[in-house]
Design goal:
This protein has 257 residues and is of the alpha/beta class. The protein has a domain of 177 residues: Vaccinia Virus protein VP39 (Rossmann fold, 3-Layer(aba) Sandwich), CATH 3.40.50. It is 47% helix and 21% strand. The protein is built from nine helices and seven strands, in the order H-H-E-H-E-H-E-E-H-E-H-H-E-H-H-E. It has a seven-stranded mixed beta sheet with strand order 3-2-1-4-5-7-6, with helices on both faces. Helix 3 links the parallel strand 1 and strand 2.
């Protein structure tokens, strides 16, 4: 299904960002990546782990913008191949590598990375706390973690739960402040939470506006019947995002020794 995600989201499979200081010439999704970079603050040569790297767009932009060395991980071999090709095409194949890895069993030594980010990835893991413990382990003392996630901003009834399961393939999301205690218990400090729900809602409206053209391309690839089905899928997800879901970016540091 990567071809479908490529049509719907391209190589940046996350929300967009609009702000007074953003470059209107950049795509909203690139502006969101830049927003996360501003919180991660890696220097040239820093070792960064991208948990749930998807098609590789954010990792490639991170390397280009900062000169950091980025390792992107995903459970999808297809994403590893497409992301590796994207890094090579972007001229940062020497800085960025992608690996097929289980985020809850990181095959890296303690203190392997100076920074870690996870963009809309934790919500898909069966044990988010275990992943965060693994992230804390592979971070250097004082290393920085930045992640973004959807939340259940308002209570979801049975109909909304059904939509969440059918469109996001999830049974539940975290509550807005749920990660605070988990992170503190693991050993993270200076935990800060930024509410970007307005950015999620703006992204949802923009996606609705661009949906007809995207569905035309889907129809060319898979036929009108599939396109009509997926159009309904996207509109249901959009309504859930706008009316019930929230979005947070969390920034924290690992415990210093």
């Amino acid at each position: 299904m990567n071809w479908l995600y490529d049509i719907l989201m391209g190589s940046n499979r996350h929300i967009g960002y609009w702000g007074p200081d953003t470059d209107p010439g950049d795509a909203p999704e690139d502006r969101f990546t830049d927003y996360l970079i501003s919180h991660l603050r890696p220097g040239a040569g820093a070792r960064v782990l991208d948990v749930g790297c998807g098609a590789g767009g954010p990792a490639v932009r991170l390397a280009k913008k900062t000169g950091a060395s980025v390792t992107g991980i995903t459970v999808s071999g297809e994403e590893v191949r497409s992301a590796t090709a994207l890094a090579a095409a972007g001229g940062v194949g020497d800085l960025v590598r992608f690996e097929q890895v289980d985020a809850m069993k990181l095959p890296y030594a303690d203190g392997s990375f100076d920074a870690v980010w996870a963009i809309e990835a934790l919500m898909y893991l069966p044990d988010r706390a275990e992943c965060l413990r693994e992230i804390h382990r592979v971070l250097t003392p004082g290393g920085r973690l930045v992640f973004s996630d959807y939340t259940e901003r308002l209570p979801l009834g049975p109909a909304q739960r059904e939509t969440l399961a059918e469109t996001f393939r999830l049974n539940e999301l975290s509550q807005p402040g749920q990660y605070d205690g988990i992170l503190a218990g693991i050993g993270f400090r200076d935990v800060r939470r930024h509410d970007l729900t307005e950015q999620l809602q703006r992204t949802s409206r923009e996606n609705d506006r661009r949906l007809p053209e995207k569905m035309r391309r889907v129809a060319e690839e898979a036929g009108e019947k599939f396109s009509a089905h997926y159009r309904d899928h996207e509109l249901r997800a959009s309504a859930l995002e706008h009316d019930y879901l929230g979005y947070v970016v969390v920034v924290a540091q690992s415990r210093r020794e």
